[in-house]
TrEMBL record:
Originating organism: Edaphosphingomonas haloaromaticamans
SUPFAM superfamilies the UniProt entry points to: SspB-like
Name of the protein this chain belongs to: Stringent starvation protein B
Lineage: Bacteria, Pseudomonadati, Pseudomonadota, Alphaproteobacteria, Sphingomonadales
Region of interest: Disordered: 124-144
InterPro entries hit by this protein: SspB, SspB-like_sf
Pfam families: SspB
Length: 159
């Protein structure tokens, strides 16, 4: 008998990744339905900035050419959850921006209030896609101070 497992004809890894991304959609849907975050919950959501369907202002893709993390906590608005993506309004350097993020672009989801975290395999092409200027791009302004809602989170390191 062979000790190597047979190749699966069922894409289990893809099915599991899709199911876990649905958890993110369901949680965000609950926040949308309830009109805000319950208790001390807040989320760090990391996503690939050049993944298909991502629509963020150009100055953010220039600042974060591969991946960025957003914080859904106190200052967000217009959260809309669709079956394949979510939209949210956030402020970056006191400049409001609307972000559209497909769930397939999400690589990490953390709710530090309850020590819950999900990490996903990237579902992007090897080369970043060229994108045209988004309709929600604001003129680039020099920030006076860095008051952005973006944080860097290392999901691969255990503490």
């Amino acid at each position: 008998m062979s000790e190597t497992p047979p190749d699966s004809l069922i894409p289990y890894d893809e099915i599991v990744q899709e199911a876990l991304r649905a958890v993110v959609g369901r949680v965000l849907g609950e926040v949308q339905a309830n009109g805000g975050l319950p208790g001390q919950h807040h989320f760090y959501i990391t996503f690939k900035t050049h993944a298909p369907g991502v629509d963020i202002p150009q100055h953010l893709t220039e600042r974060f050419p591969d991946e960025m993390t957003i914080v859904i906590q106190h200052r967000f608005w217009d959260l809309k959850v669709r079956p394949d993506a979510f939209e949210v309004g956030l402020s970056f350097n006191q400049m409001p921006a609307k972000l559209v993020i497909p769930f397939a672009a999400v690589t990490g989801f953390v709710d530090p209030a309850v020590n819950f975290a999900l990490q996903f395999q990237a579902q992007d092409d090897d080369e970043p896609q060229e994108t045209a200027a988004a309709g929600n791009d604001a003129p680039i302004a020099e920030p006076i101070e860095d008051g952005s809602n973006v944080v860097s989170v290392d999901f691969t390191r255990k503490k």
